[in-house]
Design the sequence.
C-alpha cells in the first residue's frame, strides 16, 4: 500500500508516520520516506526551496515537482514494485494545499501535473487536522522557522482550508483525523482502525 501523510506544519504527522513505520516494518516490508528531499540529491533542492529566495512565481512548484519525480522514480516506485508498504510524509497534496491555496497558483495545472508525469497515486492519504493557531504555537517552539513556517497564521489558514477542500473531493482516498486534544496514541488508534477498514492486516 502507498500511504501519504499530510497536514499543516506542526500537525504531528512525523510522529504518526514513525509509529506506523515501526509497526509495519516488523515484517521488514515497509519504507518510510518524506518530501521534499527524500532521495539522494533531494537535500539541495530542499534547501533551495525552503530558504525562500526564489523569485519567479512558478519556481517553487517546479522544484517540488522535480523533487517528486526523482523521489518517485528512485525511491517510491521501486519500493512499491518490490511489494513494500510505502509511507510518505507529504506528497502532491502538499503542493496543492501550499502552492495553490497558500501561494495562490491556479488549481487546474497543479492538479493535472502528477498524471502528466505518471506519478504513483496514493492508496490512502491521512490528513492530520489541527487548528492553525495550535500548529503555529508548536512550530514556533521548534527553532528557526523556514520560508513556509514564517508565512504566519493567514497563510496556514489558507493551507488548512485547502486540505479540507481536497479531502472532500476524494473521500475514498482521504482519511481526516481531527487531532485537537487527542494524544499521539489515540491518534494512532484512528490511523490503525482506518487502515484495517481498508484491508490492511495490522
Ligand atoms: P519540512 O521542513 O520538511 O517540514 P515538514 O516537517 O512540515 O514536512 O518542510 C516542508 C515545507 O515545505 C512545509 O512547510 C511544506 C512545504 N511544502 C510545499 O509547500 N509544497 C510541497 O509540495 C511540499 C512537499 C512541501
Sequence:
Amino acid at each position: 500500500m502507498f500511504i501519504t501523510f499530510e497536514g499543516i506544519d506542526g500537525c504531528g504527522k512525523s510522529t504518526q508516520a514513525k509509529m506506523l513505520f515501526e509497526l509495519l516494518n516488523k515484517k521488514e516490508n515497509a519504507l518510510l520516506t518524506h518530501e521534499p528531499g527524500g532521495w539522494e540529491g533531494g537535500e539541495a533542492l530542499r534547501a533551495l526551496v525552503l530558504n525562500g529566495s526564489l523569485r519567479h512565481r512558478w519556481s517553487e512548484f517546479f522544484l517540488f515537482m522535480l523533487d517528486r519525480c526523482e523521489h518517485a522514480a528512485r525511491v517510491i516506485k521501486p519500493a512499491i514494485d518490490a511489494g513494500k508498504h510505502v509511507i510518505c510524509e507529504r506528497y502532491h497534496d502538499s503542493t496543492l494545499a501550499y502552492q495553490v491555496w497558500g501561494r495562490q497558483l491556479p488549481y487546474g495545472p497543479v492538479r493535472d501535473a502528477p498524471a502528466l508525469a505518471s506519478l504513483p497515486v496514493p492508496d490512502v492519504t491521512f490528513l492530520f487536522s489541527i487548528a492553525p493557531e495550535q500548529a503555529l504555537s508548536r512550530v514556533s517552539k521548534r527553532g528557526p522557522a523556514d520560508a513556509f513556517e514564517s508565512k504566519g497564521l493567514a497563510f496556514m489558514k489558507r493551507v488548512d482550508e485547502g486540505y479540507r477542500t481536497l479531502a472532500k473531493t476524494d473521500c475514498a482516498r482521504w482519511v481526516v483525523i481531527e487531532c485537537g486534544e487527542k494524544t499521539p496514541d489515540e491518534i494512532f488508534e484512528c490511523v490503525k482502525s482506518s487502515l484495517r477498514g481498508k484491508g490492511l492486516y495490522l
In short: The longest strand covers residues 124-129. The chain has one domain: 2-34+84-197. The chain is about 50% helix and 15% strand. Residues 2-34+84-197 form a domain with the Rossmann fold fold (CATH 3.40.50.300).
